[in-house]
Write a structure and sequence with these properties.
By secondary structure, the chain is mainly beta. 8% of the residues lie in helices and 46% in strands. The longest helix has 23 residues.
């Protein structure tokens, strides 16, 4: 009997260790994108062309799983994107309506933040994954950009603005029960000093990158970096680059560089490790883009850039002039 109990306990410990390894197995929130050579990408109107793939009302963010599944958040739902001979399709994951923003993955679970101040989750091993609210985000105004951490945690940017709450700019850290990915055990304000109005959020190794809007002139937009210290606390935020007269949205890692959606400018840009813009598309080449990520097989080539075009918040009219779409940017043939 004692031997059986010991065997059961060992099994539980091994299962918990396997779950933690699955949650934090890669050093980056998107390890595939981290290995892409940025010099192979076309991030210029001189070399690329845009194709609208799907209509997604107020398209906000994207997430690729390691297997290449693609999820897109929008103003009313989160969708899984698929492709067949007839083209691209979007299947909703939520039985309802919510303004979804940031997406992240831990193990086999997809997490989505929503402006109703709840964290949602869906098990990706289910035949038809469905999002369910699992946690109420206390003290937040506008849960937005989100990324997984190196130790199984989640980070969520609170900002930049809310339609129903006063701004509360910060980055929040969530801890989970090691044995239950649907159970949040702790929420804490991880970073509030050195933060203006945070928006997009991404991670490389133990460095978080977030887009910010400076409250003070002369710069409007910024990309900042902050280290996740060995004890899990936040280091001192550093300004990687400032972007004059443009409001940035989401940021994503590609190799040693970053891809940036310039929302108010209607463009996307490649930002070098030194903070300098390497290349960018022309103004108004996109309809108020909210995110840009490197594509992943089987849906896309690694030279493709997958872009969400959000349009004006609350405007769901579709068409080439209005955004509300998932698009791909490819090198010209």
């Amino acid at each position: 009997m004692i031997r059986s109990i010991r065997g059961l306990a060992a099994g539980v410990v091994l299962a918990s260790m396997s779950w933690l390894a699955a949650c934090s197995g890669s050093d980056s929130a998107d390890s595939a994108a981290a290995t892409v050579d940025p010099s192979t990408l076309c991030v210029s109107s001189a070399c690329g062309t845009k194709t609208r793939l799907l209509e997604i009302p107020n398209a906000e963010n994207t997430l690729f799983t390691p297997q290449g599944r693609l999820f897109v958040s929008g103003g009313s739902n989160v969708y899984e994107v698929s492709k067949d001979t007839a083209g691209f399709h979007a299947a909703p994951l939520y039985d309802g309506n919510c303004n979804f923003t940031g997406l992240a993955q831990r193990g086999d679970v997809l997490y989505a933040a929503c402006f109703d101040l709840n964290l949602y989750a869906a098990n990706l091993t289910d035949a038809s994954p469905k999002l369910q609210a699992i946690y109420s985000l206390a003290g937040m105004a506008a849960p937005n950009g989100m990324t997984s951490g190196p130790d199984g945690e989640l980070y969520i940017a609170d900002g930049p603005i809310s339609t129903s709450h006063l701004p509360s700019p910060k980055i929040v850290r969530l801890q989970f029960d090691p044995a239950d990915p649907m159970k949040v055990t702790q929420q804490l304000t991880w970073l509030s000093k050195g933060v203006g109005l945070p928006n997009g959020l991404s991670r490389r190794d133990r460095t978080l990158y977030f887009t910010d809007t400076s409250i003070l002139p002369p710069s409007l937009g910024e990309i900042r970096s902050v280290e996740i210290l060995p004890d899990g606390s936040a280091g001192t935020p550093q300004v990687l680059t400032t972007i004059l007269a443009s409001l940035p949205d989401d940021v994503s890692v590609v190799g040693d560089d970053l891809l940036l959606a310039l929302y108010s400018e209607g463009a996307i840009a490649l930002v070098g490790a030194d903070g300098k813009i390497v290349s960018r598309t022309a103004p108004l080449s996109f309809q108020l883009p909210s995110s840009v990520k490197v594509g992943r097989p089987p849906l896309f080539e690694p030279t493709d850039l997958v872009v969400t075009e959000k349009s004006v918040v609350g405007v769901s009219q579709t068409g080439p002039l209005f955004g509300n779409a998932l698009s791909v940017y490819r090198p010209k043939q």
